[in-house]
Amino acid sequence: MLGLAAYVITEVPRTLPRNIGRKLALAHAAPYGSAPDGTRYASLAEREADRISGDVRKVLRHAGFDLRERHRRRLEEVADKVRKAESKRAASAEAQKALDDILARVETERTALEAIDLQVSD
After folding, report:
1. Cα–Cα distance, 33 to 26 (Å, whole number)
2. In the list 28, 29, 121, 122, which could disulfide-bond 44, CB 3.0-4.6 Å?
3. What are the tens digits of pLDDT across the range 64-114?
4. Which of 68, 65, 38, 62 is nearest to 50 (CA)?
5. Backbone angles phi, psi at 104, to 5 degrees
6. For 10-28, what is each residue's pLDDT tens digit?
7. Where are the domains of the chain?
8. Exposed (0-12), middle (13-18) or buried (19+): which is 33, by Cβ within 10 Å?
C-alpha cells in the first residue's frame, strides 16, 4: 500500500502535465467543436474570435448606453434653459405692454392739459 502511494506521488508530475497537454491539444485541434449554444466552430481561433467579439459587444453596449444617457441629460439642460428664456421673454412682453399703456395714458393726459387754457387775470 505504501509502495502504491509512493508510486502515484512520484508519477503525478510526469503523467498529469502530459494528460492535460494531450487533452488541450485534442480540444484545440478538433476539426469541429461545439459551443453550449449549439454553434459549431472549426478551430480555437474561431471560438476565441466569437468570445472576444461578444466581450466587445458588451463593452460597446455599455459605452453606447452611457453616451445616450449623457446626451439625454444635456438635452434636458438645454430644454430647461429654453423654458427659462421663454418665461423671461413672456414677462418682458407683459412689462413692455404695461409700459406702452402707461405711455399712452401720459400722452392723453398731456394733450388734455395742453388743451386747458391757463389764463391768469389781473
Report:
1. 10
2. 28
3. 999 999 999 999 999 999 999 999 999 999 999 999 999 999 999 998 888
4. 38
5. -65, -40
6. 776 676 666 666 666 666 6
7. 31-112
8. middle
